[in-house]
Amino acid sequence: MQHFHYKALPIDVHFGVGKSAKAKDILLQQGYHKVLIITTPGQEEAGHKLAKQLQEVCAGVYPHAVMHVPVEVANKAVEFVKDNDIDCCLALGGGSTIGLAKAIALQTQLPIVAIPTTYAGSEMTTIYGLTENNLKTTGKDIHVLPKVVIYDPELNLTLSVQTSACSGMNAMAHAVEALYAEDKNPIVSLMAIESIKALKSALPVIVKELTNISARQKASYGAWLAGVCLGSVGMAIHHKICHALGGTFNLPHAQAHAITLAYSVHYNRNADIEAMDRLVEAFGVSSREEVGLVIYRLNQSLGIDLALKDIGLPKEGPAEVARVVCDSPYYNPREYNYDELEKLLNKAYLGLPPI
Ligand code: NAD
Questions:
Q1: What phi and psi, each to the nearest 5 degrees, are found at residue 158?
Q2: Is 148 helix (H, G, I), strand (E, B) or coil?
Q3: Residue closest by Cα to atom 22 of ligand 1
Q4: Does ligand 1 lie within 6 Å of residue 172's CB atom?
Q5: Is residue 352 a contact partner of residue 300, using CB atoms and an 8 Å limit?
């Protein structure tokens, strides 16, 4: 057997339908008594509902999380937790909310408890992002890793069809790229395949019946596994492209991932044969040539927009993103250059099949 290195991250994970009702007990077990619930403005009401359950353990709801964690928003939140003697931040929401809790933890080292309500996976990683003067930078720090994560599939029931589908495909992208990561290992690859299978079977059910709790449970399970993949191994060109699409053109994160994945996978189809053969099996197709296409067809069946131009990428977008990606080289199992990336992005811009 080859040599591998895999460092598992120390997180307490609770999983199950209705599990968030146990949040108060879980917080007390951890020794947290002055907990601040963080949400986006849109999820403030959900925050107050949770605050009622937490009773005296909750010090309030802070509904100011926004996309991409602007530094000013992070600094205000840091002031707030210091002024109010908070001993734990409870992030109730998606990657944006967890992102604000991480920015607070980065400066204060306050512990995070995360209750994710999308499938984005940030709760399982030491990665944080901050935006200053329209420039998003990311870094890694163990202090931003949540101490506890509570997955409660019931909380996903309010996600729209579009967000459910795109966020689920965002999770799938973590699992797919983990399979051909530079530091891939057999344990994480097992989780990646299991994640892909769970998401691939759950998402088509969810888009037809948003409140199907067993499909929601399967999708949360897939997202949990995908989050572990993202937190455990490096990603490749797909994540780099999506970072540039979001950073340079402010494209919606989950949708950009969902659309681009088919093209990134097709580009890599002959690069890491072992990984691609596992994808062939997981997607039930007969050759590596078909893996990108089957992801494209899955998006189609989920009602996801197929073209980057339809989610806000301007005409000059493909060339600009290709340039940004080439400016700071990133690992990918297949070498790439400006022309190849521009070609890939032009197809994604138009939403053409990736073959
Ligand atoms: P998001 O957190 O921005 O949420 C999208 C919208 O959906 C928000 O308005 C939110 O309030 C709403 N929402 C969330 N859950 C809901 C629910 N259950 N019901 C109704 N509405 C709900 O979107 P996201 O895709 O989860 O996160 C994207 C951000 O997370 C990006 O900035 C991305 O860079 C970051 N991210 C970071 C990591 C990491 O490891 N650091 C990983 C993945 C994503």
A1: -85, -5
A2: strand
A3: 159
A4: no
A5: no
What does DSSP assign to residue 211? Answer: T
Cα 174 to Cα 241: distance, rounded to the nearest angstrom: 13
* Confidence (pLDDT) at 332: 98
* Confidence (pLDDT) at 133: 81
Instruction: Name the pTM for this structure.
Output: 0.97
Output the six-digit token pair for 282.
């997981």
What pLDDT does residue 233 have?
97
- Regions in the chain scoring below 70 on pLDDT: 1
Ligand 1 center to residue 232 CA distance, Å?
20
User: Is the minimum distance from the CB of 38 to ligand 1 under 6 angstroms?
Assistant: no
pLDDT tens per residue, range 125-137:
999 999 888 777 8
* pLDDT of amino acid 2: 81
Strand order in the sheet with 148-151: 12-15, 148-151, 112-116, 88-93, 35-38, 58-62
Do 179 and 278 meet the contact criterion of CB atoms below 8 Å apart? yes
> 307 φ, ψ to 5°?
-115, 135
Cα(93) to centroid(ligand 1), Å: 7
Gap between the Cα atoms of 242 and 48, Å rounded: 33
